[in-house]
Protein backbone atom coordinates (compact mmCIF):
# COMPACT_ATOMS: atom_id res chain seq x y z
CA UNK A 1 0.00 0.00 0.00
CA UNK A 2 1.31 3.43 -0.97
CA UNK A 3 0.71 6.14 1.63
CA UNK A 4 0.84 9.92 1.67
CA UNK A 5 1.32 11.21 5.20
CA UNK A 6 0.21 14.71 6.21
CA UNK A 7 1.23 15.95 9.64
CA UNK A 8 3.44 18.40 11.48
CA UNK A 9 4.16 18.07 15.24
CA UNK A 10 5.52 15.29 17.45
CA UNK A 11 2.06 13.68 17.72
CA UNK A 12 2.15 13.14 13.95
CA UNK A 13 5.77 12.01 13.89
CA UNK A 14 4.93 9.09 16.21
CA UNK A 15 2.35 7.84 13.72
CA UNK A 16 4.72 8.31 10.79
CA UNK A 17 7.39 6.30 12.61
CA UNK A 18 4.91 3.45 13.19
CA UNK A 19 3.80 3.42 9.56
CA UNK A 20 7.38 3.43 8.35
CA UNK A 21 8.33 0.70 10.84
CA UNK A 22 5.42 -1.45 9.66
CA UNK A 23 6.87 -1.44 6.15
CA UNK A 24 4.14 0.66 4.56
CA UNK A 25 5.38 2.61 1.57
CA UNK A 26 5.48 6.32 2.42
CA UNK A 27 5.39 7.89 -1.04
CA UNK A 28 5.14 11.53 0.10
CA UNK A 29 5.03 13.61 3.25
CA UNK A 30 3.08 16.87 3.53
CA UNK A 31 3.98 19.12 6.42
CA UNK A 32 3.82 22.77 7.45
CA UNK A 33 6.51 25.19 6.25
CA UNK A 34 9.55 25.68 8.49
CA UNK A 35 8.83 28.09 11.36
CA UNK A 36 11.04 30.28 13.58
CA UNK A 37 11.62 28.56 16.91
CA UNK A 38 13.88 28.64 19.95
CA UNK A 39 15.66 31.56 21.55
CA UNK A 40 17.37 32.51 18.33
CA UNK A 41 14.08 32.21 16.37
CA UNK A 42 15.84 30.34 13.59
CA UNK A 43 13.80 28.50 10.99
CA UNK A 44 13.18 24.96 12.15
CA UNK A 45 11.75 21.98 10.29
CA UNK A 46 8.74 20.26 11.80
CA UNK A 47 9.25 16.90 13.55
CA UNK A 48 7.54 15.22 10.59
CA UNK A 49 9.85 16.88 8.06
CA UNK A 50 12.87 15.92 10.16
CA UNK A 51 11.78 12.27 10.06
CA UNK A 52 11.20 12.46 6.30
CA UNK A 53 14.69 13.88 5.78
CA UNK A 54 16.28 11.23 7.99
CA UNK A 55 14.59 8.46 6.00
CA UNK A 56 14.87 10.02 2.52
CA UNK A 57 11.11 10.41 2.05
CA UNK A 58 10.02 13.19 -0.36
CA UNK A 59 8.40 16.10 1.51
CA UNK A 60 6.27 19.04 0.36
CA UNK A 61 5.48 22.11 2.47
CA UNK A 62 2.67 24.05 0.81
CA UNK A 63 1.33 27.11 2.58
CA UNK A 64 -2.13 26.21 1.33
CA UNK A 65 -3.86 23.45 -0.61
CA UNK A 66 -6.60 25.68 -1.99
CA UNK A 67 -6.23 26.03 -5.76
CA UNK A 68 -8.24 29.26 -5.66
CA UNK A 69 -6.67 30.60 -2.46
CA UNK A 70 -3.86 32.94 -1.47
CA UNK A 71 -1.05 30.61 -2.58
CA UNK A 72 -2.25 28.92 -5.79
CA UNK A 73 1.31 28.08 -6.90
CA UNK A 74 1.87 26.14 -3.66
CA UNK A 75 -1.39 24.28 -4.14
CA UNK A 76 -0.63 23.43 -7.78
CA UNK A 77 2.82 22.12 -6.83
CA UNK A 78 1.29 20.03 -4.04
CA UNK A 79 -1.30 18.67 -6.44
CA UNK A 80 1.41 17.59 -8.86
CA UNK A 81 3.30 15.86 -6.02
CA UNK A 82 0.14 14.12 -4.78
CA UNK A 83 -0.73 12.94 -8.30
CA UNK A 84 2.81 11.68 -8.83
CA UNK A 85 2.74 9.73 -5.55
CA UNK A 86 -0.10 7.50 -6.86
CA UNK A 87 -1.08 6.80 -3.27
CA UNK A 88 -3.81 4.42 -2.12
CA UNK A 89 -4.53 6.47 0.99
CA UNK A 90 -3.58 9.67 2.79
CA UNK A 91 -3.06 9.54 6.55
CA UNK A 92 -3.57 12.85 8.34
CA UNK A 93 -2.46 13.66 11.89
CA UNK A 94 -2.35 17.20 13.27
CA UNK A 95 -1.41 18.60 9.87
CA UNK A 96 -2.66 22.15 10.36
CA UNK A 97 -4.09 22.83 6.88
CA UNK A 98 -7.68 22.37 5.73
CA UNK A 99 -7.95 19.71 3.04
CA UNK A 100 -10.12 20.82 0.09
CA UNK A 101 -12.29 18.32 -1.72
CA UNK A 102 -9.75 17.60 -4.45
CA UNK A 103 -7.32 16.33 -1.79
CA UNK A 104 -9.99 14.24 -0.05
CA UNK A 105 -10.82 12.62 -3.39
CA UNK A 106 -7.26 12.07 -4.62
CA UNK A 107 -6.27 8.73 -3.00
CA UNK A 108 -8.21 5.56 -3.84
CA UNK A 109 -9.18 5.03 -0.19
CA UNK A 110 -9.53 8.70 0.65
CA UNK A 111 -7.99 10.41 3.69
CA UNK A 112 -7.90 8.86 7.16
CA UNK A 113 -7.45 11.11 10.19
CA UNK A 114 -5.95 10.19 13.56
CA UNK A 115 -8.04 12.24 16.00
CA UNK A 116 -7.13 12.36 19.69
CA UNK A 117 -10.62 12.15 21.18
CA UNK A 118 -13.71 10.00 21.29
CA UNK A 119 -15.70 11.64 18.53
CA UNK A 120 -18.05 13.43 18.37
CA UNK A 121 -16.70 14.81 21.66
CA UNK A 122 -13.92 17.35 21.15
CA UNK A 123 -13.96 17.93 17.44
CA UNK A 124 -11.45 20.61 16.53
CA UNK A 125 -7.93 21.79 17.15
CA UNK A 126 -7.17 21.07 20.82
CA UNK A 127 -8.93 17.85 21.91
CA UNK A 128 -6.22 16.79 24.38
CA UNK A 129 -6.13 20.14 26.21
CA UNK A 130 -9.91 20.34 26.39
CA UNK A 131 -10.39 16.81 27.70
CA UNK A 132 -8.00 17.53 30.58
CA UNK A 133 -9.51 20.97 31.22
CA UNK A 134 -13.04 19.55 31.34
CA UNK A 135 -12.08 16.80 33.78
CA UNK A 136 -13.15 13.99 31.45
CA UNK A 137 -12.83 10.55 32.99
CA UNK A 138 -11.94 8.88 29.70
CA UNK A 139 -10.65 9.76 26.27
CA UNK A 140 -9.10 7.88 23.37
CA UNK A 141 -8.37 7.94 19.66
CA UNK A 142 -10.73 7.83 16.70
CA UNK A 143 -9.53 6.86 13.23
CA UNK A 144 -11.91 8.73 10.97
CA UNK A 145 -12.71 8.85 7.25
CA UNK A 146 -12.27 12.53 6.46
CA UNK A 147 -14.97 14.57 4.75
CA UNK A 148 -15.40 18.28 4.10
CA UNK A 149 -16.67 19.01 7.63
CA UNK A 150 -14.71 19.70 10.81
CA UNK A 151 -14.00 16.21 12.17
CA UNK A 152 -17.46 15.06 11.07
CA UNK A 153 -16.53 12.00 9.02
CA UNK A 154 -17.41 8.36 9.66
CA UNK A 155 -15.59 6.55 12.46
CA UNK A 156 -13.50 3.57 11.38
CA UNK A 157 -11.74 2.53 14.60
CA UNK A 158 -12.19 3.76 18.18
CA UNK A 159 -10.20 2.89 21.30
CA UNK A 160 -10.94 4.26 24.74
CA UNK A 161 -8.61 4.81 27.69
CA UNK A 162 -9.10 6.19 31.21
CA UNK A 163 -7.91 9.72 31.92
CA UNK A 164 -6.05 9.75 35.24
CA UNK A 165 -6.85 12.53 37.75
CA UNK A 166 -3.21 13.67 37.63
CA UNK A 167 -2.97 13.66 33.82
CA UNK A 168 -1.44 16.67 32.10
CA UNK A 169 -1.80 17.54 28.44
CA UNK A 170 1.85 16.55 28.01
CA UNK A 171 1.51 13.09 29.52
CA UNK A 172 -1.80 12.41 27.78
CA UNK A 173 -0.39 13.62 24.45
CA UNK A 174 2.32 10.96 24.59
CA UNK A 175 -0.12 8.16 25.45
CA UNK A 176 -2.55 9.11 22.70
CA UNK A 177 0.24 9.54 20.15
CA UNK A 178 1.40 5.99 20.86
CA UNK A 179 -2.16 4.68 20.70
CA UNK A 180 -2.86 6.53 17.46
CA UNK A 181 0.29 5.17 15.85
CA UNK A 182 -0.71 1.62 16.64
CA UNK A 183 -4.30 2.13 15.52
CA UNK A 184 -3.48 3.68 12.14
CA UNK A 185 -1.30 0.69 11.23
CA UNK A 186 -4.19 -1.58 12.20
CA UNK A 187 -6.63 0.54 10.18
CA UNK A 188 -4.52 0.36 7.02
CA UNK A 189 -4.09 -3.37 7.38
CA UNK A 190 -7.88 -3.71 7.62
CA UNK A 191 -8.43 -1.28 4.74
CA UNK A 192 -6.10 -3.29 2.52
CA UNK A 193 -8.42 -6.29 2.78
CA UNK A 194 -11.70 -4.37 2.86
CA UNK A 195 -12.22 -4.93 6.57
CA UNK A 196 -13.11 -1.42 7.73
CA UNK A 197 -16.74 -0.78 8.67
CA UNK A 198 -17.56 2.96 8.72
CA UNK A 199 -19.89 4.12 11.51
CA UNK A 200 -21.63 7.48 11.34
CA UNK A 201 -20.93 9.79 14.26
CA UNK A 202 -23.81 10.27 16.72
CA UNK A 203 -25.68 13.55 16.55
CA UNK A 204 -25.67 13.78 20.34
CA UNK A 205 -22.64 14.72 22.42
CA UNK A 206 -20.91 17.02 19.93
CA UNK A 207 -18.40 19.40 21.55
CA UNK A 208 -15.72 21.60 20.02
CA UNK A 209 -12.11 21.82 21.18
CA UNK A 210 -11.30 25.38 20.23
CA UNK A 211 -7.68 26.33 19.62
CA UNK A 212 -5.75 27.31 22.75
CA UNK A 213 -5.32 31.03 23.27
CA UNK A 214 -2.39 32.05 25.47
CA UNK A 215 -4.67 34.49 27.29
CA UNK A 216 -6.62 31.51 28.67
CA UNK A 217 -3.65 30.43 30.73
CA UNK A 218 -3.90 33.34 33.17
CA UNK A 219 -5.33 31.94 36.38
CA UNK A 220 -8.67 33.27 37.57
CA UNK A 221 -8.44 32.74 41.32
CA UNK A 222 -12.18 33.33 41.77
CA UNK A 223 -12.79 29.91 40.21
CA UNK A 224 -12.99 26.79 42.41
CA UNK A 225 -9.71 25.09 43.28
CA UNK A 226 -10.64 21.98 41.29
CA UNK A 227 -11.25 24.04 38.14
CA UNK A 228 -7.98 25.95 38.53
CA UNK A 229 -6.16 22.67 39.06
CA UNK A 230 -7.56 21.15 35.88
CA UNK A 231 -6.49 24.23 33.94
CA UNK A 232 -2.96 24.02 35.38
CA UNK A 233 -2.77 20.45 34.06
CA UNK A 234 -4.46 21.30 30.76
CA UNK A 235 -1.95 24.06 30.00
CA UNK A 236 1.08 21.94 30.88
CA UNK A 237 3.35 22.09 28.87
CA UNK A 238 1.77 24.78 26.68
CA UNK A 239 1.11 27.60 27.20
CA UNK A 240 1.66 27.18 30.95
CA UNK A 241 -0.81 28.45 33.56
CA UNK A 242 0.44 31.66 35.11
CA UNK A 243 -0.36 34.43 37.52
CA UNK A 244 1.34 37.65 38.59
CA UNK A 245 2.72 38.37 42.05
CA UNK A 246 4.21 41.73 42.89
CA UNK A 247 4.20 42.58 39.19
CA UNK A 248 6.18 39.47 38.23
CA UNK A 249 4.77 36.59 36.18
CA UNK A 250 4.93 33.17 37.82
CA UNK A 251 4.09 29.95 35.97
CA UNK A 252 2.32 27.19 37.89
CA UNK A 253 3.11 23.63 36.84
CA UNK A 254 1.93 21.30 39.58
CA UNK A 255 -0.42 21.41 42.54
CA UNK A 256 -2.39 19.50 45.15
CA UNK A 257 -5.89 20.26 46.37
CA UNK A 258 -5.58 21.41 50.00
CA UNK A 259 -8.73 20.38 51.80
CA UNK A 260 -7.44 21.28 55.26
CA UNK A 261 -6.97 25.04 54.92
CA UNK A 262 -9.75 27.50 55.78
CA UNK A 263 -10.41 30.14 53.15
CA UNK A 264 -13.34 31.83 54.90
CA UNK A 265 -11.59 35.19 55.42
CA UNK A 266 -9.18 35.03 52.48
CA UNK A 267 -9.24 36.80 49.16
CA UNK A 268 -9.11 34.65 46.00
CA UNK A 269 -5.40 34.31 45.17
CA UNK A 270 -4.25 35.06 48.73
CA UNK A 271 -1.35 33.00 50.05
CA UNK A 272 -2.40 31.14 53.18
CA UNK A 273 0.69 29.10 54.00
CA UNK A 274 4.27 28.83 52.77
CA UNK A 275 6.52 25.87 53.56
CA UNK A 276 8.73 23.34 51.79
CA UNK A 277 5.68 21.29 50.79
CA UNK A 278 4.32 24.15 48.71
CA UNK A 279 2.54 27.47 48.54
CA UNK A 280 -1.08 27.20 49.66
CA UNK A 281 -3.37 29.68 47.90
CA UNK A 282 -7.05 30.47 48.42
CA UNK A 283 -9.45 30.25 45.49
CA UNK A 284 -13.10 31.04 44.99
CA UNK A 285 -13.87 27.67 46.53
CA UNK A 286 -11.20 25.79 48.45
CA UNK A 287 -7.42 26.06 48.24
CA UNK A 288 -4.51 24.70 46.20
CA UNK A 289 -1.00 23.88 47.30
CA UNK A 290 1.33 24.88 44.45
CA UNK A 291 4.22 22.43 44.34
CA UNK A 292 6.15 23.31 41.15
CA UNK A 293 6.59 26.95 40.07
CA UNK A 294 8.70 28.99 37.65
CA UNK A 295 9.80 32.59 37.54
CA UNK A 296 9.97 34.43 34.23
CA UNK A 297 13.19 33.41 32.47
CA UNK A 298 13.92 30.74 35.08
CA UNK A 299 13.50 27.00 35.35
CA UNK A 300 10.71 24.92 36.79
CA UNK A 301 11.43 24.32 40.46
CA UNK A 302 9.94 22.35 43.31
CA UNK A 303 8.41 24.73 45.84
CA UNK A 304 11.23 24.31 48.36
CA UNK A 305 13.83 25.40 45.79
CA UNK A 306 11.60 28.13 44.35
CA UNK A 307 11.14 29.72 47.78
CA UNK A 308 14.88 30.10 48.26
CA UNK A 309 14.89 32.68 45.49
CA UNK A 310 11.44 34.20 45.89
CA UNK A 311 10.42 35.34 49.37
CA UNK A 312 6.72 34.54 49.47
CA UNK A 313 4.76 35.18 52.65
CA UNK A 314 1.21 34.51 53.84
CA UNK A 315 -1.06 37.42 53.01
CA UNK A 316 0.47 38.16 49.61
CA UNK A 317 -2.07 37.93 46.79
CA UNK A 318 -1.58 36.35 43.36
CA UNK A 319 -3.02 38.36 40.53
CA UNK A 320 -1.47 41.63 41.70
Number of strands: 17
Any idea of the CATH class of the largest domain?
Alpha Beta
Rg from Cα:
23 Å
CATH architecture of the largest domain: 3-Layer(aba) Sandwich
Q: What is the SS-derived class?
A: alpha/beta
Q: Look at the structure and name the CATH superfamily of the largest domain.
A: Formyl transferase, N-terminal domain
Summarize the SSE layout with pairings.
Elements: E1 2-7, H1 10-21, E2 25-30, E3 35-37, E4 42-44, H2 47-54, E5 59-60, H3 72-85, E6 89-93, H4 101-105, E7 111-115, E8 123-124, H5 127-134, E9 138-145, E10 155-162, H6 169-192, E11 208-209, H7 225-234, E12 242-245, E13 248-258, E14 271-275, E15 278-282, E16 287-295, E17 301-302, H8 303-309
Parallel strand pairs: 1-2, 1-6, 2-5, 6-7, 8-11
Antiparallel strand pairs: 3-4, 7-9, 9-10, 12-13, 13-16, 14-15, 15-16, 16-17
Helix pairs in contact: 1-6, 5-7
Structure description:
- It contains eight helices and 17 strands.
- The protein is of the alpha/beta class and 320 residues long.
- It folds into two domains: 208 residues, Rossmann fold (3-Layer(aba) Sandwich), CATH 3.40.50.170; 95 residues, Roll (Methionyl-tRNA Fmet Formyltransferase, Chain A, domain 2).
- The chain starts with a strand and ends in an 11-residue tail after the last helix.
Summarize the structure.
By secondary structure, this protein is of the alpha/beta class. The chain contains eight helices and 17 strands.
Question: Could you list some keywords that capture this structure?
Answer:
single chain, alpha/beta, Rossmann fold, Methionyl-tRNA Fmet Formyltransferase, Chain A, domain 2, 2 domains, seven-stranded mixed β-sheet, six-stranded antiparallel β-sheet
Amino acid sequence: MRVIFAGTPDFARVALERLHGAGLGIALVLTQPDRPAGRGMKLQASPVKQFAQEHHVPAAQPRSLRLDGKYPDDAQAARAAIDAARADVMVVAAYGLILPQWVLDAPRLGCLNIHASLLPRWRGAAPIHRAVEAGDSETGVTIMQMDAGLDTGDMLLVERMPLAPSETTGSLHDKLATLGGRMIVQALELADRGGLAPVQQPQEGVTYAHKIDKAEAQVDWSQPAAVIGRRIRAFNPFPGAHSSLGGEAVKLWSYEIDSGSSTADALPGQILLVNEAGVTVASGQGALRLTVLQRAGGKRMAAADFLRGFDLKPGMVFGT
